[in-house]
Design goal:
568 residues, alpha+beta, Beta-Lactamase, 5 domains, five-stranded mixed beta sheet, 56% helix
Length: 568
Amino acid sequence: MSLRFRLNLLITALLLLFMVATGAVIVKGTRSSIQEGVEAAVRVTTQLLDTVVESAFSDPESGHAYETMHHFLQSLGHVRSSDIFLYDNVGRLIYQSPPSKYRSNVNPPQWFVSLVSPKSEAVMKRVGAATLMVRSDPSGAVREAWNGLVPLMWVAAGFFILLNVIVYWALGRSLKPMGGVLQAINRMEDGDLSVRLSTFGLPEFQQIGQSFNRMAASLESSTEESRRLALVVKQTGDAIMMHGLDGNISLWNPAAEKLFGYAAADIIGKSAALLMPKGREHELKRNLVMIADRRLIENVETQRITRDGRLLEVVLSAAPLIDPHENKVIGEICTMRDVTERKRMEEAERELEENRQLTQLIQHHIEDERRSLARELHDELGQYVTAVKTFAVAIANKTKESMPEVESSAQTIVSAANHIYDGMHNIIRQLRPGALDNLGLTETLRDAVSQWQLQNPQINFSLKFSGELEGLGETININLYRIVQESVTNILRYAKANEVHIRLARTKTGKISLTVQDNGVGMDNDKVDQTRHFGLLGMRERVQALSGIFSVKSELGSGVAIKVEIPN
């Protein structure tokens, strides 16, 4: 039943109640009026008859008194609101007044007659031996009252119908905004929280609309915030779980499923102790005690165990879950991030750093040994070769004329000594270029490139420098020289190139860049295991020991480009 119909029904009921009350007042007044009229008519009729009786029977000896009375009654006819009866001395009815013809065409309903008709009264008088009775008769007055009431009832009925129609129309017009309100509520029920009510003319509906819009805006904001939080919980890469102070899990996000291997349906309601490795069971109790005391747990590195028994290194953070209504801790919400790979990387980096330091130490010792060996060759063997050459020259000079055969052998010894001396200097240069300690890296590279160009005239060597290259330090100098040396050696052995370009630069920020490039046959990087080629491996280790970057770029038929970058 609609509100419009209910309000209309209520107004109709009130109107009917008013009309009934008004009708009761009217009926009561009509009844009183009829009763008063009837009583007055009966009194008048009785007084009239008393006068007639007194006049007719003034002479007791007269024998015409009854006839006079009868004739008078007949001539009198019907008296308003009164019926007259005359009985003889034995009780026979000898006269009855005729019925009232006043508004005889009006027939009021019996219920109306019963409501307005007063109690019938009769007055008895002795007229000689006869009896005269006057009885009240309100039928004429009732018909007259009904005749006057019927138009009023029609007017009331018309007013009732018209008022109902007007009220129904007015209620429909006034309650028309309720349709929009109900439609907005239905849309909100269907999930459309963006719905808003427009401005209403009635202040009551305007207040409802403003309250509804504020509620919708607040609900939309809260729902959007909840949706974002739900998306964060669902899509975050961290494992998020929630459990009560008893340790039983009540929330388990997809990242936790992926990390630990438990589906939400398999673990919700179970204890978080399932995730604790042996020997760490106390952690859960300790964390719950801290949470109950409203303390935070932030970025604690610990371990957890997966469903298949794998041990994970995780970083755990937890916060108390507080009931906003009762302001008490009801559980905890915690996040866990898998740092197993990070731990492995940190361990690998630590080992790599140790290897770098070890490699650097080994290379340092190797360079020391090379320097020592080069010095020994130069100081010891060089002196012996020089002495042999000197003795051979002296013998050749003394025996040139007297003993030509001896002189020829001495010259052979001098020539062999020269070859030994040149070979020794080449070995010394390979072991430790002396120019590196005396003249620096750039001059040493120029000297080396000159030697390579002299030994390989079919190859065009180019060497370019840029930036401030002085003061790089012995370690960087010797490693860059060895990389260039190893690169050129590989080019001469395998590349079949006719051009070699060497570029050494230092930027304003201090970063050092070295490129050695040829136009030879090249190689397929995807098929070359650089860890098994000791020349490349050695160069890579030298660069890594300096915390630099070593890269090899090559394609078949396009040569090889070796690039080294060493940070400041």
